[in-house]
Structure formats: C-alpha cells, structure tokens
C-alpha cells in the first residue's frame, strides 16, 4: 500500500518540501468478475425474492487519445477497463418495470408502456431510457415487464463512464430478456438515444461504443462519423507496460455549460472554415485554416480538434507498424501533446488534472494526459509495469503539496465489452 504520507515524504526528499498527513490511497483493482456477478445475483434474490434469469455486465472505459473530437466526426481510441456495471434481471409476465440498485436506496416501479422522456430521474433514467429506445425492436404483442438489480463497480465521478456502463449492461439484459436479437451497433445506438433523448445528457457515443464493442487486450479505433470500429492490439501486460489511472477526485464545476460552450466553439470554427465538421478540414493546411479564423478563442478550439484527430491517426499508425514497446516513446509523446492541447487550446483541464499529469511525467511515465470530458475526473499515464507504485507515490505527493484531496489510483487492463456473465 502507498499512503499519502509516504508519498509526501518521498516528495519532500526529492524536492525539499514539507509533507503533510492525508488519507491513505492504494492501487485499487477491479472486483473479480465472476464474484461480482454472483454478488449481483444474490442481491437480486434478496430484493425480489426469486432467482434472476441471468446477469449481464458492461465495462467503464478510458479514452487513450482522441478527446473532444467525437462531436466533430473525429477519431478516438478508447479501451474498456476491468471495472464493470452488473445487471441481474428477470422477465415478468406484466408490463411493470421494477428497478433496484446496490448503490442507492431508490426504488422505481413503473409501467413500461408509459415511458416518456423526462418521466424518470437519476440513475433509473439510464435504464428505463434504454428500454424506451429499444421499443422499435419490440413486438407490439410482447409484454415488457422485468425486474432489474444494478450493481455498479465503475467508480462514480471519475470520468470513467459509469453511466455508459450502466446503460450498456441494461441494454444487454433487456435484449436477452425480450429476445430482441439486436446487433451490437443497435444496442450502442439505443444507449446513445437513451442518454441524449431520455435522460437529457449530451453524449457523442464514444463511451457506449467502447463499452459494447471492446475486446480484451485491444483498444478500439472508433470513427465517430459512421461509428465504424476495429480492434487495435494494445496488450500492455505482455510487454511489461501498464496504464495508471488517477482519479483526481476534483469536484466537477460548470461542466454542462463549459461542455456546451466548447461544442459551440468547434461548430463555429467549422462554419467559418466552410466545412460540415472539422473532420472535413485538411490538416495539411492547418496554418492557412487557422488564419481564416479571427476569433482567438475559436481558433484555439479548432487547433485542438484538428491536431487531436491527427494525433489519433499517428497513434494508430504507430500501433499498426509495431508493438507498443517498440514505439513507446513516440506514443508517450502523443499522449503528452494531447494533454497540452487540452490544457492550452481547449481549456478543459483543472489544476488537479495538470498536477497529476506533470507529476507522472516527472516520475518517469512515458506519457500522461487527462481522459474524458475534463473539468475534473481522471488522468492516465503510460508507464513501465514496475513503476506503478513510484508514479502513484509521486502524484499523491504532489497532491499533498498542493493541498488537494488525496487521489485514487487504478491499474487499467484493456478488457472485454458488454456481455452475459451468468
């Protein structure tokens, strides 16, 4: 175990600063998948008084590179993580939907035929919304009644897409219970619709695609224009590398308004350049394109989107030409450039994200960047497998020095997408 006090002492020895006491932190592993599925099954039986028809789950995700480009038809490279959301469920011969959660005392009992956007609030909206979005696949004669117990193991508020994991686990369960036979992309689209049109949250589809379509040992190359995907080898463990996630535990503030503003700025940039989306702009003419934008803020937003899409192309090309180990320096440099762009041009970082990234780089990470929408959340660092504790210690020490809440750390393995567990 690495404690924040130990980390502070490490930092004091290295930089000559005084350490202060803080809460202990550890490198946290995801619960064993089989054990977590069995737990969800037992929770269902306790809540509803009978055994479920099955248990389904879907993972959270980290985006390796390709941030804030999905709504400009960009390219992204996410991967599923081993932390998952579990849904134990059973079909009933009614049209009543009963929802429970191991993390919340809220109880939802409603008529599936009366689902409408805005009728359900909180986490239940992300489950009910999936059923609502899948209606076009449901026969009019079929009853839609079901009981669902949710057990979410994806850390909340860390920018690891706990909501997408919830939606995608629900989609797997609903598809199986109602024998819909939908394709994976149908379920992806249903979960996107559930979040945007039913729950009222904005999403570009990256999170849901990663949660459903990912493969173990691989990243997912995602084209946000047509949602085409392909698996990209990303087996870090076999190459003695690791991806360290730092949940900064920074409070998200003004996220919705800031996110909307960034999206509007990027749309304004595309309009000024005369293209449908910035994906259509020619990166080879970057300076000429930026010279056509008079507004300095809009110009910087455009520069991030254009260069970030190119960084994904470069990252993908490196992985196609050799192993992660063979190109680790170049890959790390792209991660660094991505964060720097998000900090300076897109302005979506906060001090905790920047401190975590800077400390990881200083401690020997090949590259580090924020992941997710920003304004809080998590960072990732590509590191040697044996560096996990020392890099985490350096980040924790930097947080002590800055007076931040102690961060939490996870080691991420590229994991399998959504599916049935029991």
UniProtKB/TrEMBL annotation:
Residues 126-214 form the GHMP kinase N-terminal domain. Keywords: ATP-binding, Carbohydrate metabolism, Galactose metabolism, Kinase, Nucleotide-binding, Transferase. Transmembrane segments: none annotated. SUPFAM superfamilies: GHMP Kinase, C-terminal domain (SSF55060), Ribosomal protein S5 domain 2-like (SSF54211). It holds the Pfam family GalKase_gal_bdg. Residues 1-27 are annotated as: Disordered. Residues 43-91 form the Galactokinase N-terminal domain. InterPro entries: Galactokinase (IPR000705), Galactokinase_CS (IPR019741), GalKase_N (IPR019539), GHMP_kinase_C_dom (IPR013750), GHMP_kinase_C_sf (IPR036554), GHMP_kinase_N_dom (IPR006204), GHMP_knse_ATP-bd_CS (IPR006203), Mevalonate/galactokinase (IPR006206). Its EC number is 2.7.1.6. Residues 323-399 form the GHMP kinase C-terminal domain. PROSITE patterns: GALACTOKINASE, GHMP_KINASES_ATP. One of its GO terms (molecular function) is galactokinase activity. Belongs to the GHMP kinase family. GalK subfamily. This is Galactokinase. It comes from Brachybacterium sacelli.
């Amino acid at each position: 175990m690495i404690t924040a006090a130990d980390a502070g002492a490490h930092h004091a020895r290295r930089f000559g600063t005084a350490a202060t006491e803080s809460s202990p932190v550890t490198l946290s592993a995801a619960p064993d998948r089989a054990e977590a599925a069995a737990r969800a099954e037992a929770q269902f039986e306790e809540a509803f008084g009978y055994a479920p028809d099955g248990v389904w789950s879907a993972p959270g995700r980290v985006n390796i590179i390709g941030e804030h480009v999905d709504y400009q038809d960009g390219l992204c490279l996410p991967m599923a993580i081993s932390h998952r959301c579990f849904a134990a469920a059973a079909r009933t011969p009614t049209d009543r939907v009963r929802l429970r959660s191991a993390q919340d005392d809220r109880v939802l009992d409603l008529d599936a035929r009366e689902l409408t956007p805005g009728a359900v609030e909180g986490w239940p909206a992300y489950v009910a919304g999936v059923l609502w979005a899948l209606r076009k696949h449901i026969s009019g004669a079929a009853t839609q009644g079901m009981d669902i117990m949710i057990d979410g193991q994806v850390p909340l508020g860390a920018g690891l897409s706990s909501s997408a994991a919830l939606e995608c686990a629900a989609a797997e369960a609903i598809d199986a219970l109602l024998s819909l036979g939908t394709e994976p992309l149908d379920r992806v689209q249903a979960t996107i619709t559930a979040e945007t049109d039913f729950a009222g949250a904005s999403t570009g589809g990256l999170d849901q695609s990663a949660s459903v379509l990912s493969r173990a040992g691989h990243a997912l190359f995602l084209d946000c224009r047509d949602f085409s995907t392909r698996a990209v080898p990303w087996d870090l463990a076999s190459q003695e590398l690791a991806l360290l996630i730092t949940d900064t535990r920074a409070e998200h503030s003004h996220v919705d308004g800031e996110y909307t503003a960034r999206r509007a700025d990027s749309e304004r940039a595309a309009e000024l350049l005369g293209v449908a989306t910035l994906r259509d702009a020619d990166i080879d003419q970057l300076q000429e394109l930026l010279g056509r934008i008079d507004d300095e803020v809009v110009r910087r937003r455009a520069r991030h989107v254009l260069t970030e899409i190119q960084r994904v192309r470069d990252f993908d090309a490196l992985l196609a030409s050799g192993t992660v180990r063979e190109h680790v320096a170049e890959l790390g440099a792209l991660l660094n450039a991505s964060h720097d762009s998000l900090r300076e041009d897109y302005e979506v970082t906060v001090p905790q994200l920047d401190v975590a990234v800077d400390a990881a780089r200083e401690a020997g990470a090949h590259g580090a960047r924020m992941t997710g929408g920003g304004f809080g959340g998590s960072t990732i660092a590509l590191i040697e497998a044996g560096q996990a504790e020392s890099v985490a210690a350096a980040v924790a020490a930097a947080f002590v020095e800055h007076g931040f809440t102690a961060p939490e750390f996870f080691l991420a393995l590229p994991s399998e997408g959504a599916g049935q567990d029991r």
